[in-house]
Amino acid sequence: MPEHTHSISMLRLYQLVSPALPVGAYNFSQGLEYAVHAGWVSDEASVLQWISGVAENSIATLDVCLLLRMHAAWSDEDEVLARRWSAYLLASRESEELRAEERHLGRSLAKILMSLELTQAGSFIKDTNTSYACMFALASSHWKIDGIQTANAYVWAWCENQVLAALKLLAIGQTAGQRMLDALLQRIPALVQHASTIADEDIGVAAPRIGMASAWHETQYSRLFRS
Predict the structure, then answer these.
(1) Can you identify the CATH homologous superfamily of domain 30-217?
(2) Is the pLDDT of residue 1 over 80?
(3) Are 184 and 48 in contact (CB under 8 A)?
(4) Tag placement on the chain: N or C end, fewer CB within 10 Å?
């Protein structure tokens, strides 16, 4: 790939993970708000432990595995397979809240991609099986971004959103947030590399507390984040 083209592709990747991208990820905590409410998470160390645990036992073993498969499917122009993996991801979400978040982010990103003249995204705007990961993979494949780089950026964006949610929920400070992000970013390449080796039959989640927290968050009396 020519250097100029590669530079544009990487800038497109930055655009995809930018907090300025209006998909609404800041509205969701993915169970973290309930974890704070229940006292499971209360300080910098426990926040980092929570985020690291979910990243290792859910994001890397489900989201990234399927993101890589959808990226490969889009690169091969196999929309049917991409849709199949998108539906699989939604079916693997453990609560209605998590499924609603996935659909909301996915459809929002599809609308943005349509506005950027990526017309393949159009049919996903109202599809009930549209996932955020599927649209993320479509965009990165279309913009010639490598699958591993795509996955690294996807996990980084998820980690950043979780840390920002923690900063809203707990009085731990912006500097603590940067320390956590520094610790998390050093783990991301290994998580993505491991995800790339997971066979189809081994894809799944081994983080029961996030599913429980998300389900209980749906009826939590006082909430800052959307359910």
Answers:
(1) Urease accessory protein UreF (1.10.4190.10)
(2) no
(3) yes
(4) N
- For 127-184, the pLDDT digits (tens) are 999 999 999 999 999 999 999 999 999 999 999 999 999 999 999 999 999 999 999 9
Query: What long-range pairs does 122-127 form, CB within 8 A, spacing at least 24?
Result: 127/83
* pTM of this structure: 0.95
Residue boundaries of the structural domains of the chain: 30-217
The pLDDT confidence band at residue 221, using thresholds 50, 70 and 90, is confident
- Contacts of 48 by beta carbon, 8 Å cutoff, 6+ apart: 180, 183, 184
3-state secondary structure the chain: CCHHHHHHHHHHHHHHHCCCCCCCHHHCCCCHHHHHHCCCCCCHHHHHHHHHHHHHHHHHHHHHHHHHHHHHHHHCCCHHHHHHHHHHHHHHCCCHHHHHHHHHHHHHHHHHHHHCCCHHHHHHCCCCCCCHHHHHHHHHHHCCCCHHHHHHHHHHHHHHHHHHHHHHHCCCCHHHHHHHHHHHHCCHHHHHHHHCCCCHHHCCCCCHHHHHHHHHHCCCCCCCCCC
